[in-house]
């Protein structure tokens, strides 16, 4: 039985449409390889600036937008996992990064370009990343070395930074503590758990030693935030610390509280350097309250 010419034409057009649509699929997939949806609330991707391919992770869909900076040479997920997992995703949108040259961001940091303005560059780049993602104003969080990035952003961009949260923050390095921090350059004292975490990021022990040595030296000798600069911060700041933190003793906590104009503070009596891990429920509750109020 012969087929109706009109039906044949319609069928051929439909087949052609399906073929063309299927041919376009790989192109669309290729364009989106820079940004991966892990689930509806978790997105990872890369932001490119000055030759760096900077890794970030975005979690949540809430109105309170927060940028988060991990510790030295760290990775957002490894360093800040309890916050990503513990904050209310309906109320918060969290963006964590691996700062240029560290964690999953590559190539490695070019110290010749950024040594003298290290944390200023990170603060500027963080703001650029957030603007790239569509956020013109937001709050900042920073742990340990990442706290310098958060505080510097508040100093440089007062109109963009709503609030700041820092913990285990060594913003002002004093001569008294330089020697003890220089001893941390040697990675042989690291725990097996910590070394495994960094091996996942950097591949081998030799690379870890080089990256950690160079960055710790810069952290100790460069880019101190003096009391004059801290006094310039206009937004509310929440400073937290553990009373048993041997890396960042309470003295540094007291310095920040004394020099930031609009400050709230909390000291965990039995906390160490990683209070967001060891006291995650209490930490997350206090920080969420501060950011939402």
The beta-strand count equals 9
The N- to C-terminal Cα distance equals 76 Å
CATH architecture designation of the largest domain: 3-Layer(aba) Sandwich
Give the overall form: globular
In the CATH hierarchy, the third-tier topology of the largest domain is known as: Rossmann fold
- Under CATH, the homologous superfamily of the largest domain reads Alpha/Beta hydrolase fold, catalytic domain
How is the biggest beta sheet arranged?
9 strands, mixed
**In what order do the strands lie side by side in the largest sheet?**
1-2-3-5-4-6-7-8-9
Along the chain, the helix and strand elements come as HEEEEHEHHEHEHHHHEHEHH
Tally of separate domains: 2
> Which spans of ≥5 residues are poorly predicted at pLDDT below 50?
1-33
User: What proportion of the residues is helical, as a percent range?
Assistant: 40-55%
Structural category = alpha/beta
Give the C-alpha Rg: 23 Å
H/I helix tally: 12
**How much beta, percentage-wise?**
15-25%
Mean pLDDT: 86
For this entry, what is the oligomeric state of its chains?
single chain
Query: What is the CATH class name of the largest domain?
Result: Alpha Beta
Give a quick set of tags describing it.
293 residues; disordered N terminus; Rossmann fold; 20% strand; AB_hydrolase_1; 9 strands; AB_hydrolase_fold; AB hydrolase-1 domain-containing protein; signal; serine hydrolase activity; 9-stranded mixed β-sheet
């Amino acid at each position: 039985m012969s087929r109706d010419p009109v039906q044949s034409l319609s069928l051929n057009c439909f087949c052609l449409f399906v073929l063309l649509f299927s041919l376009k699929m790989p192109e669309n997939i290729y364009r989106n390889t820079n940004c991966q949806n892990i689930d509806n609330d978790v997105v990872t991707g890369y932001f490119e600036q000055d030759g760096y391919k900077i890794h970030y992770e975005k979690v949540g869909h809430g109105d309170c937008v927060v940028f988060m900076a991990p510790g030295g040479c760290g990775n957002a997920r490894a360093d800040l996992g309890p916050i990503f997992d513990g904050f209310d995703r309906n109320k918060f949108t969290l963006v964590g990064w691996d700062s240029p040259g560290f964690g999953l961001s590559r190539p490695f940091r070019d110290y010749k370009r950024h040594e003298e303005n290290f944390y200023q560059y990170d603060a500027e780049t963080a703001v650029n990343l957030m603007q790239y993602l569509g956020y013109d104003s937001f709050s900042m969080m920073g742990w340990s070395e990442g706290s310098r990035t958060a505080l510097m952003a508040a100093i440089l961009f007062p109109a963009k930074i709503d609030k700041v949260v820092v913990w285990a923050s060594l913003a002002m390095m004093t001569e008294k503590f330089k020697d003890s921090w220089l001893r941390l350059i040697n990675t042989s004292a690291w725990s097996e758990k910590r070394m495994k975490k960094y091996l996942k990021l950097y591949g081998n022990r030799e690379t870890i030693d080089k990256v950690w040595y160079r960055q710790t030296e810069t952290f100790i000798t460069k880019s101190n935030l003096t009391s004059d600069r801290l006094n310039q911060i206009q937004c509310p700041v929440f400073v937290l610390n553990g009373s048993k933190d041997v890396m960042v003793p309470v003295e540094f906590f007291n310095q920040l509280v004394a020099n930031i104009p609009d400050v709230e503070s909390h000291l965990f009596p039995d906390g160490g350097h990683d209070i967001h891990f060891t006291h995650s429920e209490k930490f997350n509750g206090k920080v969420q309250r501060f950011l939402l109020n």
